[in-house]
Amino acid sequence: MESLRKAVIADEMADRVAEQDGNNQRVVAYAPTPQDAKLCAKILKENDVAVCCCETIDSFAETILAGAGIALIAQEHLTDAAIAQLKVALDRQPKWSEVPILVLLQAGDPDSKLLKRILSLEHVTLINRPLRIAVFINTVRAKLRDRMRQFEVRDLLLEKDRVQTNLRREARRLDMAIQAGGMAAWEWSKTHVYWSNAFRQLHGFGKDVQPSESAMFASIVESEREQIAQQWNAAIEQNVSFRSEFRINHPRHGERWLVAVGEPLKSKSGKTLRYTGLQWDITERKTAEMELRQSHETFQRLITDNPQGLYVVDADFCVRYVSAGARKVFINVDPLIGRPFAEVMNMIWPKAFADEAVKLFRHTLDTGEPYAAPPLVERRVDTSEREAYDWSIERIVLPDNRHGVVCHFYNNTQRQQSVDLLRESERYFREIADASPAMLWVTDENHMCTFLSKSWYDTTGQTRLEGMGLGWTDATHPEDHERAGREFLTAAKAHQPFFSEFRLRRADGNYRWAVDVGRPRFDSEGAFVGYTGYVIDVDDRKAFEQSLKQAKVVAENANRSRGEFLANMSHEIRTPMAAILGHADILKDHLKDPDNIQVVETIRRNGNFLLNIINDILDLSKIDAGKMQLETERVRPDGLLAEVRSLMDVRASEKHLPLKIEFDGPIPDLIETDAVRLRQILLNLVGNAIKFTDSGEVKILVRYEGIEGRSGAGEKQGPLRSKLPAANTCRLIFQIVDTGIGIKPEDQLSLFEPFVQADSTSTRSFGGTGLGLAICRRLAHALGGDVAVESTYGRGSKFTLTIEAVSSGRLVVPNLLIDVSAEKVKEDLQISANILVVDDRRDIRYLAQHFIEKAGGNVTTATNGQEAIDTIFGHQKSRVDLIVMDMQMPVMDGYEAAAELRRRGCELPIIALTANAMKSDRDECLAAGCTDYTTKPLDSQKLIAMIDRLLKS
């Protein structure tokens, strides 16, 4: 340590000597007279030589000590005392310094003794007077050059001493570092590797591990091994020193950080002989650096990401950190980080305030005393805007362990503006609230009312004191009071919007219905702060809603009445029609005269035509009322078309028209759909085509399309549409093409509307009600499709029916020879049973009795349900095997009678006979206890077949 201290002192001395180098080219002169001194100074300055003239021997000697290139003195000033004084001054010069002395001799020969004393000063050059200026100047310049070389020699000596001192110092430091810092020495050459004991301990190598490159690199963690090896090889190839930091896996201490340095040792020829170096453990330093870096990053992030006004001035009085909130204030200062704080302040604020702020910051940095400033109101220099701030400062320790000053500030300008705006907004809010017809209100976080608009008080007559808190609920109707308060508090506790209706007491004591709507309020941090809402009078709306409810009840009653009317109409029309058609059949069996038979046929044909019209009206009514239900079943489409052709061939033959069916490729062998309704549509469309075609042909074109995965498939779904499975869904397209009279374009738009036909001429010529196409389209919608028309007036029409159905997935070649019609009742079907026929209409009883007795059965009749019960359970019991009973009768209808029979234990089959046309008829009959169901007009074959089937079962 002593050697280090001496070296430092020597450096300081050398620095002080170096300060005199600026005077090493000046002439220090002590001229014979002041006039000579001026002349000498003038001559030297004109030749660019610096000169310093002295007036006494003392100042001359002191100036030489301060630094001189040449000492110039007149002979007459060199007394013995002066020479002794000069020798003292020259002896005090550094050893390397030899100041040239020029002596201006007086005219004449000098005294030898005096000359000897002058020459005893050393480095003396004599110059005769009077002066020869050119010789004098050349002599001065030559001596100054010599003097310059002295300083250069001095610099070389000083540099050599400094280098040697540094080498000694570094050697000593290295020796101390190796001893105190746990450093480990190593050497490497191509033929030899040396490890010190400290090196082995540093890596955890045992004595059995031989020094080698591979052993050393093997201890380095795998992820860094290749990189360190590349650095090592690159340094060796370039013969340069290297320094590396890396981690090793110490066998006992785990992962450690090491630093390795190496220097090449070269021969005089420059060839590298070997590398020598040191390694030492820097784990603690690395850990500290990491912690310091994390601390610094955390500190920087805490400040720079802070939205508040915050900035830090470091120990050098420069801006170090600025928060996000503070950058807005310093937006016009760029760059900001690292800029002197005083400069920043003067760029923003007036000089007086900026200087005062800098002074306060400096005081806090030096003393550690915090400072809280009074409110600042100043006009900024950079923006000319007047701003207000609250600010305070305190001293903190920065991550580099130096002190700094942190300033916290808050921009009061915006806050003050916000306060003013808030006050103004509150005034506007009150004015708007008081002017609003709605009754506005506000609550706090405890759900207590804190504001009610003027319209509340005007409406309810409450005072401000009465309405606050939960007092507003007192204005509700006593029957609504508890509910209104509960609905509000339930929503308020959950911080949810709420809606409540209650009757509100008005100032005149009357009550009117009101709606209360509220929404929760939250502050900027998401904390619940209360509710805002409004109350509006809805008494007129409530009255309107009540009228709507009443209208709905009336509509529902009307719909119900409509259904009942349809049922009654169906019964009242179908029942006499059944008698007319039935008796016509009976009459036909008794007639032989062809004219009479023709008359009966006319009655039957027109009766059936009238029945078809009734059926169309009832079908349309059922569809519109949503009372028609589809019955899905599996059916062969080619068989169904064969049945349609079989049914329509007769009508086509009457007009000598060919009826053709063509298929565009294979079709599914089976589909699931409502075969009855599909058949009804096709029969209607084909029947129309035949009816309106006098010549040419009628053709049915059939095409199959698979629509699996087709977007938009089946988008037209009517109210009767059954939901079919998505799998194997297909589309069948039926085109009924005729060569008839066609349809005018203007008539095509309304063609599918009920009771609409092309024109009155068509109605007179062809008949019909105009319901068929309307029913077809509605049924097509129910089947997932549609009916469309294309027509050219005078040339024919094409009706396209599209339906969707579930197919079996198997395609076949169509076969129109297949017979899929229902099994026909044999004409010679005979029954042997006692049948009770119950109907209030004598004609129906007669027809049923005629059909049954013709088939071999015995018939007992009754006119109402009560008579039927008496017949079954009376004192004079009749033997009965089956009951055929009408559902609509006086005294006791069929529903009530069937239920009573079942209640009493009667297990006889009961066939319900009804003329109703609603979808619920069958379900109602079966629910009442009937076994099966048939409709009027009576079909003799169907009735006898049903009786035979039920008797056998």
Short note summarizing the structure:
The chain has about 950 residues and is an alpha+beta fold. About 45% of the residues lie in helices and about 25% in strands. Helix 1 (about 1-20) packs antiparallel against helix 6, helix 12 (about 340-350) packs antiparallel against helix 13 (about 350-365) and helix 20 (about 635-655) packs parallel to helix 21.
What this model shows, in words?
The protein is an alpha+beta fold and 953 residues long. The protein has 29 helices and 35 strands. Strands 22, 23, 25, 26, 27, 28 and 29 form a seven-stranded mixed β-sheet that branches. Strands 11, 12, 13, 14, 15 and 16 form a six-stranded antiparallel β-sheet that branches. A five-stranded parallel β-sheet has the order 2-1-3-4-5, sandwiched between helices. The longest helix has 52 residues, at 539-590. Residues 1-9, 708-726, 759-765 and 821-826 have low confidence and may be disordered.
Task: Tag the structure with descriptive keywords.
953 residues; alpha+beta; seven-stranded mixed sheet; six-stranded antiparallel sheet; 29 helices; 35 strands; 46% helix; elongated; disordered N terminus
